[in-house]
Predict the 3D structure of the following.
Amino acid sequence: MSESVQTPDRGAVGPASETGELARRSPGKPIKSERAKAETRLGWLLAGPAFVVMLAVTVYPILQAVFDSLFSYRLTAPDDREFVGLGNYGVVLTDPVFWYDLGVTVLITVITVAAELVLGFALALVMNSAIRGLRGPLRTAILIPYGTITVVSAFAWFYAFDVNTGYINSWFSWLPFISPDTAWFGSTAPALFVIILSEIWKTTPFISLLLLAGLAQVPSELTEAARVDGATWWERMSKVILPNMKAAIMVAVLFRALDAFRIFDNIFIMTNGAYGTETLSLLAYRTSIGRLEIGMGSAISVVLFLCVILISFIAIKGFKVDLAGRGGGK
Amino acid sequence: MKKKSNSTLMWVVIAIVVLIYALGPVASILANSFKPASEFAGGGGTFLPKSPTWENYGSIFVGDAQSLFLPALRNSLGITLIATAIAVVLATFCAYAIARLDFPGKRLILTAALAVSIFPVISIVTPLFNLWRQIGLYDTWLGLIIPYLSLTVPISIYTLTAFFQQIPWDLERAAQVDGATNWQAFIKVIVPLALPGVFTTAIIAFFIAWNDFVYGISLTSTSAARPVPAALAFFTGASQFEEPAGAISAAAIVVTIPVIIIVLLFQRQIVSGLTQGAVKG
């Protein structure tokens, strides 16, 4: 959807970052003096520990996972550990379960991100144009889902829909496809529906706050000028506001897509992956923690990791999402 | 917008819709926490409890479920607070350096922080599970604090950097010109300016660690270290055939209400912290 909003005037308006980028680079490399060396030393002395700790708790385990994935290694028979090269990857990539789970993961990711983008944008518009006294309370209200533990959200939705504990069936029994004993968690589509609802509820606030920040950066002179020129609400939205928010939208979409791709908590609580609701994260968990097949589980973990890298790469190269753009600035 | 009363009515409707959205599921689980076990069986349930009871809260604090819930609450608080404190201290030094000093590698650190924050947790868990079992960190506080740093450190670095980049550091020099020593200038001028950012970062990092589920269920096996979200998944009813729904709901409310209070008190800071880290300002 966001591709269609690209207009030629994008360059003329230009996201604020580009000028910042230029300004940052123009002075060129400073000449190395004693002072600069001391500053570098102090800089790394202060920043180094955080950097090292951060990498130690993430990069090391990933490398270990890559190493483990080359072995046939079960904790139930640790002495039978045997080097199998890429054999585990061969098994994973030829297993229909893997492809099915990948499909479910992609499906959940696409639906949640699309729904959250629309809902989040609506919420952002509401907060952006809310009358003075209402803006704060609205913002506080939508932070409540953000602050709620995902597992708690999963239980809330599960108990509301479940055939034994819930009230949704009695509320909506007038609908032709809902009866008092509709088993939401007994087949794939309805179970995924509730899982996706819970995910959307919990994470839309985050996306809407990012979009609200993006909305605030659209120069009000531009929207005013468009209004004076007689542009309709829809024209202002599609020709002025959305093109100018492209950066914020892409960052929000990428963050949420990567987050949705790792979905685990909601599914674990509601179905534990049963009835065709298993995703890659659950498959990895079931293989390594559940069945203690460290080698195979590591291979799935590495594949999942590569998927995340691939999504980020496509987003950053293909859609020019500048994630670190603001951070480097002074 | 033409008639004032019309637009007021529209905003009232919008506000109600947003409130129902935000509070619906929390209200639902709050209502559940007051339902007796009988209302969780056989379907045909209602939103509000028909005969409200405190027995679920009794069960998690003094009854059958207390051995499941109370240790988990202690674990969650302890592990999350320690992981947050370590992350915030490390990130404060790091963000200070990035915001104030000019040194090669600044961009690398921020890029790494962003990259690490999108790591799939499940990919880290398998090797840790194996390693922790070998070196005895499985099912210990330390065994969760270490991986929690992968959640708390990156977000702390880039949230704090964004905050620190907005501090007018020249004030420090101005104070020194006015005769303050380096230390006085730092304590009297910089610390009060930096503290809100540090505090907000701590809240956001705490939320993320508090929300963890994957590490919690994968790296623990008993109440020695299992945090609340993981413990909730292992709650059992009074008998094998009884839904633990009431006790789970009560426990969920106990861990949700404090967070909601924090959100209500600090919403402005949380919003600026969340968005500064991720969006160009």
